[in-house]
Amino acid sequence: MRLKVRGIGVFAHREDGCSTIFDSKMPMKVADSESGPSLPRVWVLIALFTILLGFAGAFFFLSRGASVAMVVLIASVVLAAAELQTYFQFFCLPKPSFMGMTSRGSFWIALSASFFAAFLLEAGTLIGAPNSTPLELGDWRAKRFFVFFMLSYLLILFALEYVPADISDRFKLYCHNRLRRTLFAFLVAYGSSFILALAVGFLFHRYCALSFWPQLLFWFFLFAAVATGAVHFGFKIISLEFSVMLILLLAGTSIISAIPISNLFSWDDEIHYSNALHLSYFSDAELTSSDLMLMHLFDVQGGHTVDASMGRFPVDGSLTWREDEIDLLTAELDAGYGRGVVATVEGIASSTLSYSMLGYVPSAVGLWLGRLFHFPLSLTFMLGRFANLLCYATVCFFAIRIIPCKKLLMGVLALMPTSVFMAANFAYDPWVISFGFLSVSLIVRSVDSSNPPTSHVVFAILLSFFVGLAPKAVYFPLIGLMFLIPTKGLTPRARRAFYSAVVVLGLVVVASFLAPLVVSNGGGAGDIRGGEGVNSSAQVRYVLGNPVAYASTMLKFLSTSYLTPASFGAATVQWAYLSDLSVAFPWLANVVLIFVFCVALLDSDACSRKIFSVAGAVWALFLVAISLVGICTALYFSFTPVALDWINGVQSRYLLPLVLPLLVFVLNMPYVRRWGRRFVPVAVMVVSVSLLGFTSWMLLFSRLVV
């Protein structure tokens, strides 16, 4: 017996049973008895059985922690979705893909490719591990191999669905029409930039006693950013999104290379490095003395003479760092890494089995590659940071490319100095910010479309939210932005399926951070970084018993401290332990706020007018407000002494994921700008690059001395 798929399936499907590829114009189809894809009952039962096993496994693993139990449950849901997509991809009617027409034979090819990829990844992990080798069968780990296999298979399914079938033809056409001209333009632009950077860098090194290598990096970034803008705006060779991505990579690489290896550089980077390192092994992590120093603040292991913080605490904006100081720390950490493993974490760490660990995947990949090629620790550390930067820049590229309007605004927000700084370090905030951009882009494109959404597109939005919210699920109210997507053209069944999918995703994300709170009876002792008097369980009881008093505390905190120009300035030009530029220049906070507000107003066209509605603005404002309440409440529980009439630990940077939804849906002026179509984008990008360059110079590159 075969069951007819109604409403939103795993992906959109044409009436011939084949799933669509990048077809955002096609409305969702609802299968009836005569047409549409059908699903055999056995596949439904297999998927349901997988989810039931997930519930059973979650209950079984509850003893290891609520986070681990949630990972088991979420993994079962993902596996069930993969099972259904497997049927539609390989066992339904043939469909075109970048691999050719899919068929049952393609399924076995996909399985074989996944197995081979898992074999290579496991072997690579053992090759890179100091104390392990792929030649010893006992070093191979079945659990890790299975994870690699499933990840490879999921990536194949994703690629078959979302990579255009004619990708090779597009690439050949691009190479034939534009590649040679583009390469020549960048060769001239970046070659000239490098020569200028050499000259200016030498002058600052010679007459200002600043370290030459960082000066070369900084000035090359600045000149190359200007050259990139000239190639884009002057010659129209590259798109805006490609320009933004290149500028992000240039700026971030200069930051990464200035101080190759250290901690107490970005917020909680010792914790982020530890998590990324454990994830890069997945199980049986092997730690050197240098790893332990980077994972613990102010720690000096045997064989070392200095800790990895370089004196950055307490924060001192006048502090400088000498070349020999940086070289000494780098040499000692490389030497400690070369001496071998001093500790091994047996099995899979509980922290690794967490939904939030998705945000560390890019950095973990970078560390994995560094070990595979046996790079010194300093280069491996830089590679982990660069992988994080590359992920941020790439996701921002696709977000700007997809959104039909507000491209300039998104480019400005992507280039905010604080976001770039975090992307160039071990941090998961850039993951949240960039996938937030992507989610909003997909929603805006769906709102702008004259056709109802396909499940192909809806699933992409759900996936973007699911992945992006993993590190900070407290932003879950933003999932509600999907309710702005028009569903007028859908049948009642499809509409109910759409709303159900959004609600289910919201519940899963909420459960990921509420489950540990409930299981631990309110969160236990809370975050030790909050100091004395912090007790999450007692704080929860206080809030439940005194809701009016807590509401008053929150309103006072938001109105007098958090939602102010100074706070927004800190969110955009603060570089953690390198200081806050808005403190040294208080006027800068107002300048940045006015600049972003003006860009939001000026970056307006017919699409901007189409996506605006009063009801939509009110709804988006409500979601942003709920997100703020959630952020404050989470920190009040975990970071604030019981019954304190203030909220501690709420960083200004937590505003960054909320800025784009606020500006796109709430502060979006419904008019079409018909003037300055060439001047405005140029001026906006000049200001953005200038702000990023000024912040980089003042907080880092002017402080690296001979």
Automatic annotation (TrEMBL):
Pfam families: DUF2142
Residues that span the membrane, as ranges: 42-62, 68-93, 105-125, 145-163, 183-204, 216-235, 242-265, 377-400, 412-437, 457-485, 497-519, 584-602, 614-639, 654-672, 679-700
Keywords: Membrane, Transmembrane, Transmembrane helix
The keyword Membrane belongs to this UniProt entry's keyword annotation: yes
Entries under InterPro entries matching the protein: DUF2142_membrane
Name of this chain's protein: DUF2142 domain-containing protein
Organism of origin: Collinsella intestinalis
